[in-house]
């Protein structure tokens, strides 16, 4: 089949689909991945065709004000929708749509008659088991969680409304609101496979038919890739270090966070690797601290003692896969949800909110997760569970079912 995967957002919203696409390609499918321009190298490195989505900029991942977050997300989706149709060519047999792109992709599927399948990184359907993932809220009880989940979907409809309306107009489709389209897909039991582990999110029993949790899709890593020589030397020079990084968060705060991280490491008596990320994290920590750039988590995380991270979905899963305990510093959106999930598993300390992060608090949490065995034991147990899951294989099964039905 000729498959188009459409994903948009920060790197964590795109990178998992490089591994999924590579697995589908290895099974004999013709796979293209549509994303915004900065991710073209990632897509092509995985051996996939790159299709450009039109947004010139990505929404900032570190915005914490709710209204500003909604405004920037709506502007991003509206811009995305203006050229989304150009990424789908006449020969496309199947659309695989992410959480971000599905509200636009549904309209493309209607216009072209192309079947679609949801491949989400976050659960979005209302459930009594937990509150809406993207709000960062604590549990409100089963009734409250479901009500909040429905409200979150209505807010998501508002964010995509203008982009969807303009896209429908461009496609020559009759007007239809974003909420009406979503409800239509729900009535049809439109299938969605969630690329996260059941170790973190077991599929809720009160979900509608057509929703499933299948296991993670891991970013593509070239089998020949190795860690940089200076990093290998650092890892071999002493006890396992702690990896500290904030992914696409904290833009422009690298110097402050780097100094804070070094103070915490020294206070806890630990070595550290600082991953620069969007923050530009860096510090002069002497021989016991090394700053690195883009390094695959699959190669580095199994060799560290613990990970300090922002609790993005991908980094949270990667740390568990490596069997490594964590200290989470959530910033916004779905990060508090994943941080609480890791803590509930016993594989992470209680979350440290980014806004109130201190060197003393970070040092204390690091001292616990590195030196108290239950944290590492819980992380290793989750890693064993995740090793039994094959999220890409589950998507391939669904794709082949769709192919047989055509």
UniProtKB/TrEMBL annotation:
Protein's UniProt keywords contain Methyltransferase: no
One of the GO BP terms on file: carbohydrate metabolic process
Alphabetic keyword roster: Transferase
Transmembrane annotation, as ranges: none
Gene3D superfamilies in the cross-refs: Glycogen Phosphorylase B
GO molecular function annotations of the record: hexosyltransferase activity; UDP-glycosyltransferase activity
Presence of the UniProt keyword Transferase in the record: yes
CDD domains in the cross-refs: GT1_Gtf-like
Domain Erythromycin biosynthesis protein CIII-like C-terminal: 287-398
Pfam families, per database record: EryCIII-like_C, Glyco_transf_28
InterPro entries in alphabetical order: EryCIII-like_C, Glycosyltransferase_28, GlycoTrans_28_N, UDP_glucos_trans
Domain Glycosyltransferase family 28 N-terminal: 3-61
Superkingdom assignment: Bacteria
Protein name: UDP-glucose:sterol glucosyltransferase
Species, as recorded: Streptomyces katrae
């Amino acid at each position: 089949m000729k498959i188009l995967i459409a994903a948009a957002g920060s790197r964590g919203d795109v990178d998992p689909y490089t591994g999924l696409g590579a697995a589908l390609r290895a099974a004999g499918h013709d796979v293209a991945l549509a994303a915004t321009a900065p991710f073209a190298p990632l897509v092509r490195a995985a051996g996939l065709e790159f299709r450009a989505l039109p947004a010139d900029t990505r929404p900032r991942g570190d915005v914490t004000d709710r209204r500003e977050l909604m405004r920037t997300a709506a502007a991003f989706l509206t811009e995305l929708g203006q050229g989304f149709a150009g990424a789908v060519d006449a020969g496309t047999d199947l659309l695989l749509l992410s959480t971000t792109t599905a509200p636009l992709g549904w309209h493309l599927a209607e216009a072209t008659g192309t079947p679609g399948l949801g491949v989400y990184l976050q659960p979005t359907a209302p459930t009594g088991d937990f509150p809406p993932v993207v709000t960062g809220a604590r549990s409100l009880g089963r009734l409250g969680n479901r009500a909040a989940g429905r409200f979150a979907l209505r807010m998501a409809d508002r964010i995509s409304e203008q982009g969807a309306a303009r896209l429908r107009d461009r496609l020559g489709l009759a007007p239809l609101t974003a909420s009406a389209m979503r409800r239509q897909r729900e009535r049809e039991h439109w299938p969605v496979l969630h690329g996260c582990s059941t170790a973190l999110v077991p599929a809720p029993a009160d979900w509608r038919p057509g929703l499933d949790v299948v296991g993670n899709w891991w970013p593509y890593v070239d089998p020949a890739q190795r860690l940089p020589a200076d990093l290998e030397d650092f890892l071999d020079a002493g006890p396992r270090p702690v990896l500290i990084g904030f992914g696409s968060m904290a833009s422009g705060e690298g110097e402050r966070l780097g100094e804070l991280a070094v103070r915490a490491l020294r206070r806890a008596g630990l070595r550290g690797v600082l991953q620069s990320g969007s923050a530009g994290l860096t510090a002069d920590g002497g021989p016991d601290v090394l700053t690195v750039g883009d390094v695959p988590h699959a190669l580095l995380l199994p060799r560290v003692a613990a990970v300090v991270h922002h609790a993005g979905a991908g980094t949270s899963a990667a740390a568990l896969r490596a069997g490594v305990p964590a200290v989470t510093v959530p910033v916004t959106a779905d990060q508090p949800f994943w941080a609480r999930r890791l803590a509930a598993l016993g594989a992470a300390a209680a979350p440290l909110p980014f806004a109130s992060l201190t060197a003393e608090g970070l040092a204390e949490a690091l001292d616990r997760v590195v030196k108290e065995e239950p944290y590492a034991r819980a992380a290793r147990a989750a890693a064993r569970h995740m090793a039994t899951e094959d999220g890409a294989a589950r998507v391939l099964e669904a794709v082949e079912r769709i192919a047989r039905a055509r």
